[in-house]
Design brief:
By secondary structure, this protein is an alpha/beta fold. It is built from ten helices and 19 strands.
Length: 333
């Protein structure tokens, strides 16, 4: 794991002091992932339209207000957008969508596959633009394990948080094997496109390296593409934990979720001096974020979701966490 890094573009959309939102994108693949749907004005319509899945931790306004922009950016597309969240997500997403009027043109074929994640089951519903977004008819199925989503060499896992409302934490895992190398893709003569996902699928399927591919009118063998644009990596984990108390109930699941993560993005709403406030409002302190990072043996910790009361002295929260976990940083304004 040492030295391994994610092969994706990762953006903490609003930095450490704004609404938590983590955007993870892969060059040439229309399957970007977004953790939380709060303020997302830092992502243009093209990036939002590249989303394949959105994972909502909970329904407080600073984690949910950006859903409208996500739907708008994808409304004219013929695609399925997966949305996961805690109990009540199906109803809340549907209510937001139905608060608007739509012309319902034939080319608008967006389907939102929305899932409520609960303790023993998954509740699923399809919200289809082509049918005028009729009332959803949720279907329940047993929940097995912690994996919510898989797609082309990656998976997303979850754990339950302990907040004032139902809340989830997430981790994206780039699974061992071939992954696109963003630096190689940027430097190579071929522009990233749909061929990246096609080549990745064939490499992961173990096709012969002399298998041909036609790209932009040219013929390339799979081995040349693998050497020029891809790399083999171990499992690389990126964990996202926000709006949860560091409680006995949440601690085991959060440690497992973040275990040996390459990077942990973690709630640090309060200083340890305000531990009573943290416990009351079910948030973590900077010291507790560092404790999670240390116990989970992560490689690096990025603090986020600083309370506005610390404006002008955010660095004190970083220093507090760094005293217990040296690999701590933050994206400060």
């Amino acid at each position: 794991m040492a030295g391994a890094r994610a092969s994706s573009e990762i953006r903490l959309v609003n930095g450490s002091a704004g609404d938590p939102a983590l955007f993870i994108d892969y060059p040439g693949r229309d399957d970007a992932i977004l953790f939380d749907a709060g303020e997302n004005g830092g992502l243009d319509a093209r990036r939002l339209g590249d989303l394949g899945a959105v994972f909502i931790t909970h329904h407080h306004v600073d984690h949910f207000i950006g859903l409208d922009r996500i739907v708008r950016a994808n409304l004219d597309r013929d695609k399925t957008l997966h949305v996961f969240g805690p109990t009540g997500t199906i109803r809340k997403v549907y209510d937001r969508i139905k608060s608007y009027e739509y012309p319902f043109f034939p080319f608008q074929k967006l389907t939102l596959e929305v899932r409520d994640v609960e303790s023993t089951l998954i509740r699923s519903a399809s919200l289809e633009c082509s049918r005028g977004f009729p009332e959803p008819e949720p279907v329940e199925s047993p929940r097995e394990g912690c994996v919510l989503f898989r797609n082309a060499g990656l998976r997303v896992e979850f754990a339950f948080g302990d907040h004032t409302v139902p809340c989830l934490a997430f981790a994206l895992v780039e699974e061992a094997g071939y992954q696109p190398n963003p630096d190689k893709l940027a430097a190579g003569p071929l522009r990233p496109g749909s061929w990246v996902g096609q080549a990745l699928a064939r490499l992961r399927a173990g096709e012969p390296m002399d298998s041909p591919m036609t790209i932009s009118g040219g013929r390339f063998d799979l081995g040349t593409l693998a050497e020029t644009y891809f790399e083999r990596t171990p499992d690389v984990r990126v964990a996202y934990v926000t709006d949860t108390a560091w409680s006995d109930e949440a601690r085991p699941g959060l440690r497992k979720l973040a275990h040996r993560a390459w990077r942990l993005y973690c709630d640090s709403f309060y200083s340890r001096r305000e531990i009573k406030q943290a416990e009351k409002h079910r948030h973590m302190t900077a010291s507790q974020a560092a404790e999670l990072a240390r116990e989970a043996k992560v490689e690096s910790l990025v603090l986020m979701h600083f309370a506005a009361r610390y404006a002008g002295r955010y660095e004190s929260l970083v220093e507090e966490a760094r005293a217990a976990f040296p690999g701590t940083s933050a994206e400060l304004p």
